[in-house]
Amino acid sequence: MSLSSARSLMEKRAFVLSFEAVEVAAHLDPIYAAWVIESKKDDEQCGAPQDELAKAGYPRLDLVLNSPSLLELVMGHYLFDELFGPPTWDGRDSIDYWFDQVIACTSDGGSIKVAGICYSKLGGRSSHPDFA
């Protein structure tokens, strides 16, 4: 069964996850630093900055976490899998859940909230240990 077929049999849900900003920064700082190095190489190959983060000069992660547009770009897209673990499907087992998209990321300085859409089995609970 393909992902799109499986998703059509799943229940669409909204999610909001909240994290302590200090913990996010501690976990993602080395990952972000390595990602920035690779992104700068990509920018060089393309001949110009490729997004708002590049145009901002790839600020330190603590600064990104306090910038609404950069926060959403980094946390909601580029490093989402690094924070949650890859929500990938191996093509063999049944799909219990699927993160579809991040709609918004916000920070109040002490915490970070990530809101989005996910899918899970109809009427049931996920067998994934983090989402049971």
Runs with pLDDT <50, length 5+?
126-132
Fraction of helical residues: 40-55%
Shape descriptor reads globular
For the record, give the distance between the C-alpha atoms at the N and C termini, rounded to a whole number: 23 Å
Beta-strand content bin? 25-35%
Nearest-integer average pLDDT = 83
Helix/strand order, N-terminal first: HEHHHHHEE
Q: Number of helix segments?
A: 6
| Strands in their spatial order, largest beta sheet | 1-3-2
Radius of gyration: 17 Å
Number of strands: 3
User: How is the main sheet built?
Assistant: 3 strands, antiparallel
How would you classify the helix and strand content by structural class?
A: alpha+beta
What attributes characterize this protein structure?
132 residues, 3 strands
Fold and architecture overview:
With about 130 residues, this protein is of the alpha+beta class. Helix content is about 40%, strand content about 25%.
Helices and strands in order, then pairings?
Layout: H1 3-8, E1 10-20, H2 21-46, H3 52-55, H4 61-64, H5 68-78, H6 80-84, E2 97-107, E3 111-121
Antiparallel strand pairs: 1-3, 2-3
Write a concise synopsis of the structure shown:
The protein is of the alpha+beta class. Helix content is 42%, strand content 25%.
